[in-house]
Amino acid sequence: MTFSKMMKHERMLVLILAAILDLANGLYLSQSSVNAEPGKSLAISCRDPGGQQVTWKGPKGPLHAHTRPKIQDTSIGKLLIFTPTSVHDTGNYTCSLLNNKNEFKVFALVVEDHKDTTFETDTSTNDYSNTNTRPHRGRDHENSPDSDPDPIYFKDTPEVQRGKEGDNVTIRCEINKPLKLNWLLEDEGENLGPRYKPIGDGLLIISASRTEDNRVFICEVVKSNTGKVIHKKIRFIVEHKPITVTYPYNTDTGEPPVWAQNDEVYGFQGENVNLTCEVEAEPPPTFEWRSSNQGHKKIGRVIKEGTHKSILQLKMSEETVDKYQCIASNKHGKLKKFFDLQIGVRPDPPRNIQLVSAGSDNIELKIEKPEENEEAIDNGMDPRWMNVFYRNVNSEDWDEQIFNITLETFNLTELNSSTMYEIMAATRNVAGLSALTNNTFIETKNAGSVQIDNLSFLSVVMVNSLILLTSKLA
């Protein structure tokens, strides 16, 4: 026998001996010792026959509902639950009366990875942190017939269950034994909240279901004679009619939200224009496009992006100027979105780009705006944004930053130091972009040189201050 195996066996014997020595105490412990492999689910029950409160303590301190391992109160006692077991769980776990620590029972756990023949020392940090994060559970665990002659297993429990928004919905979980089931949320443990109510026969009631109830629920059961824990994850989906997709207003650029019930859309003569209709819906919606002039006739090219977005692409001309509507519908209802398509006027481009300053990670530009056009202003076609396009000259990928056109200077940020950038700019109005300016090449500074420049500036300030102070003293 190798030294590492001898050490493992010796450690196991010491732990089991410690558990055996406390058999005279009156507390009931479902098991006094277990030798397990990593990755198994395990629960040990402790209770006082007289009904007094008990508490668990592990090798590193007190245990409760949000530690690992966790504690759970049940009708069969206070459970010590490992989901799953780890080699770091090896040790003695003490169950004692809450008001009398001198009366206790010890449970000895040895977790061995038989694939690893080296002696393993626990150097982990304190695992008993106060956290609501539930340990990862992996696949559903069930007793196999060859290891358990009386297995527990789930039946008639779909992994995906659905309910309609606004209804009181029942999630079902059923096992083959008349045992009590516990309900949990995947990332929040036992904190179900007031709208989730477990009832008998493995049912969970969700009051007035809403879209935020789209989540994963877990039902689990503990087999008291073995401490075996089995569980099943159930993904709940709330079905609802199509609703709007909301986007925040861009306060930096002044751009409006993408989704509006009534949309004014502009296109340039002879160019393609896209009308985009995106909704949230469950089940996914079907889309239908109509125009006031052509009714149900084919009016353009329909492009489907995923299951919840439809795009109508039109070539802009006098004939395509019209009012269009997108109808998104599923079995729960429909939503209409309206587009007023008009011919737009391309804005005038910027005149030139001038460098204000270049740092190690930014370039500040002065971009001369085009002259004001009164006709464009009257028609709402005046430029409102400045779009700056730039790329590292060693890359083919262009980046873009959008600014409100009223700014005095335009600062490109998050750039690389000591890098040459190619830069172009265009104005943009509600219809689209102007022509691009000629390209300009500007290099960012070396990060070290910026620090030297700052130091030189500070030195000048200090020297000037010293001269001023000396002259006053004189």
Automatic annotation (TrEMBL):
<dbReference type="InterPro" id="IPR013783">
    <property type="entry name" value="Ig-like_fold"/>
</dbReference>
<feature type="compositionally biased region" description="Basic and acidic residues">
    <location>
        <begin position="156"/>
        <end position="165"/>
    </location>
</feature>
<dbReference type="InterPro" id="IPR007110">
    <property type="entry name" value="Ig-like_dom"/>
</dbReference>
<keyword id="KW-0732">Signal</keyword>
<dbReference type="GO" id="GO:0005886">
    <property type="term" value="C:plasma membrane"/>
</dbReference>
<dbReference type="GO" id="GO:0007156">
    <property type="term" value="P:homophilic cell adhesion via plasma membrane adhesion molecules"/>
</dbReference>
<protein>
    <submittedName>
        <fullName>Uncharacterized protein</fullName>
    </submittedName>
</protein>
<dbReference type="Pfam" id="PF13927">
    <property type="entry name" value="Ig_3"/>
</dbReference>
<dbReference type="InterPro" id="IPR013151">
    <property type="entry name" value="Immunoglobulin_dom"/>
</dbReference>
<dbReference type="InterPro" id="IPR036179">
    <property type="entry name" value="Ig-like_dom_sf"/>
</dbReference>
<dbReference type="Pfam" id="PF00047">
    <property type="entry name" value="ig"/>
</dbReference>
<keyword id="KW-1015">Disulfide bond</keyword>
<keyword id="KW-0393">Immunoglobulin domain</keyword>
<dbReference type="InterPro" id="IPR003599">
    <property type="entry name" value="Ig_sub"/>
</dbReference>
<dbReference type="InterPro" id="IPR036116">
    <property type="entry name" value="FN3_sf"/>
</dbReference>
<feature type="domain" description="Ig-like">
    <location>
        <begin position="256"/>
        <end position="342"/>
    </location>
</feature>
<dbReference type="InterPro" id="IPR003961">
    <property type="entry name" value="FN3_dom"/>
</dbReference>
<feature type="domain" description="Ig-like">
    <location>
        <begin position="149"/>
        <end position="235"/>
    </location>
</feature>
<dbReference type="InterPro" id="IPR003598">
    <property type="entry name" value="Ig_sub2"/>
</dbReference>
<dbReference type="InterPro" id="IPR050958">
    <property type="entry name" value="Cell_Adh-Cytoskel_Orgn"/>
</dbReference>
<feature type="domain" description="Fibronectin type-III">
    <location>
        <begin position="349"/>
        <end position="447"/>
    </location>
</feature>
<feature type="compositionally biased region" description="Low complexity">
    <location>
        <begin position="121"/>
        <end position="133"/>
    </location>
</feature>
<feature type="region of interest" description="Disordered">
    <location>
        <begin position="119"/>
        <end position="165"/>
    </location>
</feature>
<feature type="signal peptide">
    <location>
        <begin position="1"/>
        <end position="26"/>
    </location>
</feature>
